[in-house]
Write a structure and sequence with these properties.
Order of helices and strands of chain B: EHEHHEHHEHEHHH
Strand order of the largest sheet of chain B: 3-2-1-4-5
CATH topology of one domain in chain B: Rossmann fold
Helix content of chain B: 40-55%
Number of helices of chain B: 9
Strand content of chain A: 15-25%
Largest interface: A-B, 18 and 16 residues
Oligomer: heterodimer
Number of strands of chain A: 5
Structural class of chain A: alpha/beta
Shape of chain B: globular
Strand order of the largest sheet of chain A: 2-1-3-4-5
Number of domains of chain A: 1
CATH class of one domain in chain B: Alpha Beta
Structural class of chain B: alpha/beta
Strand content of chain B: 5-15%
Radius of gyration of chain A: 15 Å
CATH superfamily of one domain in chain B: 5'-nuclease
Shape of chain A: globular
Radius of gyration of chain B: 15 Å
Number of helices of chain A: 5
CATH class of chain A: Alpha Beta
Distance between the termini of chain B: 32 Å
Number of strands of chain B: 5
Order of helices and strands of chain A: EHEHEHEEHH
Largest sheet of chain B: 5 strands, parallel
CATH architecture of one domain in chain B: 3-Layer(aba) Sandwich
Distance between the termini of chain A: 36 Å
Chain lengths: ~160, ~170
């Protein structure tokens, strides 16, 4: 299974993408990351567009520490995912203003409250199951989303310790 | 995309213990500059390679000392990634994958589990047999077969050896 991770996070949360990739790989799930170095006219690199097409699903992660240009890139990547009809779960930290995303794909989370996202995530997974022809294991997708949020919380814990 | 040198030249690679040890035993580690700009060695890999019970330990120390600037110690790996990988890989392999992930470099490993994990993590991974074929292509060695013979018994599959031989045009 391949999951494209579109992300906009602050510097402290930056290792989350690589850590998620390492966790997922242990379960034979590939996390594909965007290449944001050679953007074309639509704001996406050719490599990123290929990866989105190749992926089985897209998970977006936006934290409150993200800079606006990166949030904008996530929006472009999600639009590309929508165009090729990929199932999307958008993990958005509470308080982050986000536009243009369908509400039934958003999971709001609070890094200080590990249960805040649970119902949102259940709802989104239910929507994906009912609206899209999902042929892969939906549990694995929910699990990846949950791990991503766990890594955000862990990043906060480590930051508090320092 | 694997990291390349600024002059559009050779790529940088991270090496793990098994492959480093094999290349030293085969006496071809000194040819790696034909293929790579630098070889990054995580401290965990160096420690394991120096401790491991193999014949080429003295040669390895000498080579690393002589090729300073080519064999480079590296410490950039994310500790979190390393710890996650250490759950089921050994320390050297975990450190090598984490380092390759951090620098987006090529990974050189012969460990089956590490190879698969790194591939799933979208890293470019190269094994000893491919290194041999690349060295032949670069003109550093004339034949791969004698090295294959030396590798017999080192847990390499017969099918892999045959395929590598065919790719080198020595079937």
């Amino acid at each position: 299974m391949k999951v494209f991770l579109s992300y906009a996070v602050g510097p402290w949360d930056a290792p989350i993408a690589a850590r998620l990739r390492a966790v997922a790989a242990a379960y034979d799930i590939s996390i594909l990351l965007p290449d944001r170095t050679a953007l074309t006219a639509n704001g996406l690199s050719v490599d990123t567009q290929t990866k989105i097409r190749q992926s089985d699903a897209v998970i977006a992660l936006i934290t409150s520490t993200a800079q606006a240009p990166f949030v904008s890139l996530v929006n472009s990547e999600l639009q590309a995912a929508a165009q090729v009809n990929k199932p999307v779960i958008a993990l958005i930290e509470q308080g982050v203003p986000i536009q243009g995303l369908p509400k039934d794909r958003i999971v709001y989370f609070n890094r200080f409250d590990p249960t805040a996202h649970e119902q949102y995530l259940i709802n989104v997974l239910g929507q994906i199951r009912s609206q899209q022809q999902w042929k892969k294991d939906l549990t694995a997708l929910g699990w990846i989303a949950g791990i991503a949020l766990g890594l955000v919380a862990l990043s906060q814990l480590v930051s508090d310790e320092k | 995309m694997a990291q390349r040198s600024g002059k559009g030249g050779l790529p940088v690679a991270v090496i793990d213990t098994t492959l480093l040890t094999r290349l030293v035993i085969l006496d071809i580690a000194q040819f790696l500059p034909f293929m790579f700009k630098q070889i990054l060695i995580p401290p965990e890999v160096k420690r394991e390679a120096y401790k491991a019970p193999h014949k080429g330990k003295r040669r390895l120390r000498k080579l690393i000392a002589e090729m300073v600037g080519f064999f480079i110690d590296c410490y950039e790996a994310d500790e979190g990634v390393k710890e996650i990988l250490k759950a089921d890989l050994d320390e050297g392999e975990a450190a090598a994958i984490a380092q390759a992930e951090s620098k987006q470099s090529i990974l050189l490993t012969d460990d089956k589990k590490a190879f698969k994990r790194a591939e799933t993590m979208q890293l470019k991974v190269i094994r000893t047999l491919t290194v041999l074929n690349m060295l032949k292509e670069a003109g550093a060695i004339t034949e791969v077969k004698p090295y294959h013979d030396k590798l017999q018994g080192l847990y390499l599959r017969e099918t892999d050896l045959k395929r590598a031989l065919a790719e080198a045009g020595e079937e």
